[in-house]
Amino acid sequence: KTPWELDSALGLPCLKAAEETFEEGHGVYAATVKEAQEYADEHSGDVYLVAPLPRMQAVVGETGWRAEAAVCLGRLTKENAPQIARLVLVANSQGLPQVKEVLHWAVKQVCLGAWWATPHRDLILRTLVELKDAEALYIAGKACPGERCVRPLADALVETGCAEYLYLAGRDWPAEHFTPEIAQALARSKQAHYLYLAGKDWPDGRFVPEIAEALAKSGNAEHLWLAGRDWADERFSPVVAQALVETRDAEWLYRAGLNWREERYIPQIAQTLAETKDAERLYLAGTHWPDAHFNPVIAQALVETKDAERLYLAGKDWPEGRF
User: Fold this and answer.
1) For the chain, what is the radius of gyration of the CA atoms?
2) Across the chain, what does the average pLDDT equal?
3) Which of 121, 262, 297, 315 has its CA 20 to 30 A from that of 78?
């Protein structure tokens, strides 16, 4: 076992590498909590939280660090994890280099649902903004009661560009916490699934036209169809219908003709479906589409496919006036 000396200034155990060995790649090494726990389990040991000693050289990476000297903050247990997490946050605020994954761990030890009520709220806020962990920012912003704290959290969440938590913030944050920049950031994400969900789920006053435009540009046929089926009238835009046409995806063109309300349906949907020469969807359109959506080009396109089975089924199943 390697003996640790007591650092008189900090009052903590300290371990130093041999002099003039740091430049040769030696030093005190530390890893993330996850990696350290795996190593401890393998060797029947314990995990300790350590930090580079101030004013000594250190090299910090994504998964660990190497330093000329380190101080031990304490053994990690389930009981003292919140206390050690606070020590990590304090150390970070005082300029001691920290691995990002360890900071993530430290933030997650704090009850984010009530972080603003703790005496360490300024440390937590600073770390949240620095880390830009979208999930943690969303949870903290949802719970925080004051605008002074919320605005930095919202700005940091916008910088992450994480569509999932931008959408969730728009859905769940109180009105006084939401900022227009969240909607604009979601539009810039180009993530069709969350653009569609925002149009479906966000409260009034948060949706912006750029979300519909971004969904149209995504070219995602399924979510374009879902928007046409589910969005409120004030959120739906003709660009969504036109974008669906441009996908030339027979499955979702057929479904639009089947499910979309007449004021959203455009004739190009039938025309483009006919051009796909997809015999199965042409047959289904002739069987199930309402009269207001059906177009004779569907029947002509089915003929041109020369698909014997669907031609037979059309003769058997299509309503009068379409065969």
Assistant:
1) 30
2) 90
3) 121
**Is 234 in contact with 247 (CB distance < 8 Å)?**
no
With 0-12 / 13-18 / 19 or more C-beta atoms within 10 angstroms meaning exposed / middle / buried, residue 240 is buried
Query: How do strand 58-60 and strand 64-67 relate by DSSP bridges?
Result: antiparallel
For residue 107, the model assigns a pLDDT of 76
Tell me the whole-structure pTM to 2 decimals: 0.78
Burial category of 281 from C-beta neighbours within 10 Å (exposed 0-12, middle 13-18, buried 19 and up): buried
Phi, psi of 73 (to 5 degrees): -85, -20
In sequence order, the 6+-apart residues with CB closer than 8 A to the CB of 252 are 221, 222, 224, 225, 244
Read off the DSSP letter of residue 261. Answer: -
pLDDT of residue 272 exceeding 80 = yes
For residue 42, what pLDDT band results from cuts at 50, 70 and 90? very high
Query: What mean pLDDT do residues 243-264 have?
Result: 98
pLDDT at position 112 = 60
| Residue the block writes with tokens 């003929």 | 303
First to last CA, the chain: 88
C-alpha dist (Å) from residue 42 to 33, 248, 261: 14, 56, 62
**Band (275; pLDDT cuts 50, 70, 90):** very high
Helix residue ranges per DSSP H, 110-220: 121-131, 134-143, 147-160, 163-172, 180-189, 192-201, 209-218
Three-state secondary-structure class, residue 289 = coil
Question: Looking at residue 215, what is its pLDDT?
Answer: 98
What mean pLDDT comes out for the span 255-273?
A: 97
Query: What's the Cα-to-Cα distance from 171 to each of 150, 183, 202, rounded to whole Å?
Result: 16, 11, 5
Q: SS3 for 72?
A: strand
Q: 46-60, 111-125, 185-199 — which is least confidently predicted?
A: 111-125
Distance in angstroms (rounded) separating the CA atoms of residues 47 and 81: 11
